[in-house]
């Protein structure tokens, strides 16, 4: 069999032009006055990381010219919108602490829900080529330039633009944010006109860990105390950046009983409008040598998992590994912002604490390889206080920390039941080894009326006391065999303890996961 593969690379149209000083002075002179740049680019001072990411709101009024058959606008209100600034050159000028900057601003959508359910093509990114001046002392950056979209007939629509950013500094900490706007320089009604975008970025350059740089014993106090022996240590040979950089790891939140009052249970108070059930991490920065990280921690609703970036239900956080407690200690800060504008976002409250740990012992119903809790370091009567929330990674996140063991608690019931109904051993038949991939299987699920309601799957959690890792990138444990052979018998003649996870739909809206323990005899299957 021969496969013929075709790959198409999409390159956004870039519109490049030298800075229009008249245009710059008209719109930017009061922000950062023009200065004469040197001829040679600067490499020691840059406004932010060479590829700085962030988020934006706006763009609903820009026609989706990339897909002429689509009636939707370029950035529908339901899409997740991300920006990237690629800095090309920075020049020092004859004014102290003022630099000329050349860059690309790329705006794109991650509208995954639309792709999956509406069978639509991704909208192409918008790219703006911009130039201007940055003042390191005021943190302001003002740039002019243009971008374009193209129609189905190949006609380009020029989008003259003004980019203004505030908070671009050469020293940043957990409370630092970069806010700004992208405005049209065309007149309303012109083909190149668009309504203003609001922008928000978490600075990556020149960052100082001000919260977890302190003694961690004082940072992560007041939460649930877990004995160190119940959590796995993070060895120096295990890269902490690999452990927490998996973008697809989601965490299920578990509230204390009677948690119906959002004011006392919700980490964002009543303003969130819902009690979050899931949590996800986006790594901003990771330092392997100090085992420190920076996160965006988002708490989306189930209905809007791929929603636009929402500051009011997002934490900016920094974290460091605590060797004395075998846990990641995290300080989280709430983001406050004005309605429908990212530009005015600010950080005022860093009272949220989180801890992540890797359980050393698993058991039925406790089969997540990352668990932890969220709490407030405020007093119970203070505004912003909330009750402690537990969380766990969905299923086995496959983070690859070796050493965890499985502890059986109900297998004796299964062993007693199964020995009474044991099938006879037949010669000539072979059955899968307990550790083989054949122990994972799919199932057709039917209801009591024999009507098929969907597909399910089943896979081992543990064979013997050894955790069954679910992907090929995981470091396997070297602590020995899954069971101990009995003298005078072959290994296959011993029924093994085994733990399973079974997942299937209960109906159209509900998915069920069942955890189980039992025994497996490879001789009888």
Automatic annotation (TrEMBL):
InterPro entries: DUF2921_N. Residues 59-78, 417-437 are annotated as: Disordered. Residues 24-198, 225-389 form the DUF2921 domain. Pfam families: DUF2921_N. This is DUF2921 domain-containing protein.
